[in-house]
Amino acid sequence: MPIISLDSLTLTRQSHGDRFDAAFASLTAGTGAQHLGARLVEVPPGKRAWPLHCHYNNDEIFVILSGSGQLREGSRTTPVSAGQVLVCPAGGPDAAHQLINDGTAPLRYLAVSSMREPDIMEYPDSGKLVAFAGAAPGGDKNKRRLSLTQYRGPEVDYWEGE
């Protein structure tokens, strides 16, 4: 059984534009866990790791280790701080969530997720839909058979073009 020391992890930085910046490391990669994903995430002050999003097939739990911030759920925000556990069940845009570091110190948390695939994600702020098959979001990209991102647009009839 793998035992992981959080202090021994090597974090990988990911940033995009002025709002998104985070460093993270997988806790479950290479452990044999097939239906559970977990990451250590550190978000600098004033930033967020990922856009507001929802998963249609995966639940997430966030365990706040240190720092403080806001949990954004749609247009609502709720203060969060060390020692709190946030449960974000799968669902549509009403279940969309995002952690924002509005404090002065790094926001450090564990992000734990079921790893069901296929999964569909929705990004309400940008109107995007993402579909994954072969590996769940956060899973091994080399096992992914489908990764499709598109803007929500006019519906196409099932039989169109057949």
Q: How would you explain this protein's 3D organization?
A:
This protein has 162 residues and is mainly β. The protein has no helices and 13 strands. The protein has strands at 12-16, 20-26, 36-43, 54-55, 60-66, 68-73, 76-81, 85-88, 98-100, 107-114, 119-123, 128-133, 146-151. The strands form three sheets. Strands 1-2-3-10-5-8 form a six-stranded antiparallel β-sheet, with no helix packed on it. It has a four-stranded antiparallel β-sheet with strand order 4-11-12-13, with no helix packed on it. It has a three-stranded antiparallel β-sheet with strand order 7-6-9, with no helix packed on it.
**Which consecutive residue ranges, at least 5 long each, have pLDDT under 50?**
none
Q: What spatial order of strands do you see in the largest sheet?
A: 1-2-3-10-5-8
The backbone outline, from C-alpha atoms, is globular
The main β sheet shows up as: 6 strands, antiparallel
**In which range does the helix fraction lie?**
under 10%
Overall pLDDT score:
94
**Helix vs. strand class:** mainly beta
Number of helices: 0
Rg, Å, rounded: 16 Å
Relative strand content: over 45%
H-E string: EEEEEEEEEEEEE
The CA-CA distance between the termini, in Å, is 51 Å
Number of strands: 13
